[in-house]
């Protein structure tokens, strides 16, 4: 689909042409999950092709020190898959117009992380724009407290939808160190939400601040 | 360019095919700028075609209440350009391999916001992955303190590069209200960096926390 946009911005007119290969999502939800039984945050860890490709682009311009031995013993120029793995908040697309954002977020918590909590337990943190240069989607972030009693499955996403998700727990006392450790690849949503928790939930839960 | 990626992730093998229309950036820098003379944050406000298109997609599925009168007096189904405007940190691509990240960030501060500060004044806040589903670029965020004495031009970006940027000041005492006001379209980088400032610079500068 080719779309033309004519605009007038601060006295300057112009035109953009967009070529859509497929419909991009216009709205996403993400959820900071805190397990009150184990005092851990529940994140998802997944392989992101786009991140992998960035690392691959970067490695191409560097000396071949990143080459690794493959299982067959030959030297490969491919990076290990771990180069494309990121830690993220549980998240998903708003693709069901009849459901509330809270209900969609609830389903993602169940599918990806295995916790069954009522939608009423989801508290909105805020909303913002993500990927303003490419997708421009609105993103609404929620906070959900869960307990071990809410855990009904191991999670892991929907393999038939191509999701390969590992559920990861980050203990509360390690959260701030995790947030600012640049060796751990993660999204801004993880960093922000840990700090939001620190600022807003600290009267209720103690969090280490020695960073 | 068509790129094939074969992967093995948690015991599941698969293949992704990427079609690059152009080379995406693999690394970006962004800068939280604080003016110590006026006690204001310095942001950029710009029209983002992708955000506009998202709003347009959303408006299509809603009753035509969003229709507006054009200058010619006829009713248009186009949304006003303001629907595509976002508030963001000063930012740019890392596209000069011979320059340090601090030097690239310094150039963006000068081009977009008109402040000339030495690269040594740029303090790294942290780095993270942005747009993990689409671009996967690494993003490094800096903090820069500037004063009115550093202001050498009105900024506004490079019109020849298609940049249409308005420099906006947010007073320190309004920063937290601004960060959490969902009616103001903004990136997560703005929200996070305001809160980072609040948590880390508050011994030095007083910031209102009545949110």
From TrEMBL, chains A, B:
Name of protein: Uridine diphosphate glucose pyrophosphatase NUDT14
Superkingdom assignment: Eukaryota
GO biological process, one term: ribose phosphate metabolic process
MF-aspect GO terms: metal ion binding; UDP-sugar diphosphatase activity
Subunit structure: Homodimer.
Ranges in a coiled coil: none
Localization: Cytoplasm
Named cofactor requirement(s): Mg(2+)
Similarity remark: Belongs to the Nudix hydrolase family.
Organism in which the protein naturally occurs: Maylandia zebra
């Amino acid at each position: 689909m080719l779309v033309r946009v004519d605009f007038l911005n601060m006295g300057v007119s112009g035109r953009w042409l967009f070529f859509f290969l497929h419909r991009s999502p216009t709205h996403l939800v993400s959820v900071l999950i805190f397990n009150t039984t184990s005092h851990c945050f529940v994140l998802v860890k997944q392989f992101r092709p786009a991140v992998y490709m960035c690392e691959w682009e970067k490695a191409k311009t560097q000396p071949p020190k990143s080459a690794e031995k493959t299982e067959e013993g030959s030297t490969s120029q491919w990076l290990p898959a771990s180069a494309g793995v990121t830690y993220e908040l549980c998240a998903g697309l708003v693709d069901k117009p009849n459901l509330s954002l809270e209900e969609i977020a609830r389903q993602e918590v169940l599918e990806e992380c295995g916790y069954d909590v009522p939608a009423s337990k989801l508290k909105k943190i805020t909303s913002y724009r993500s990927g303003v240069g490419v997708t421009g989607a609105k993103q609404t972030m929620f906070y959900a407290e869960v307990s071990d009693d809410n855990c009904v499955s191991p999670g892991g996403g929907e393999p038939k939808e191509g999701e390969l998700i590992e559920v990861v727990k980050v203990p509360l006392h390690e959260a701030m160190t995790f947030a600012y450790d640049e060796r751990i690849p993660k999204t801004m949503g993880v960093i922000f939400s840990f700090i939001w928790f620190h600022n807003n939930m600290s009267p209720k839960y103690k969090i280490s601040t020695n960073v």
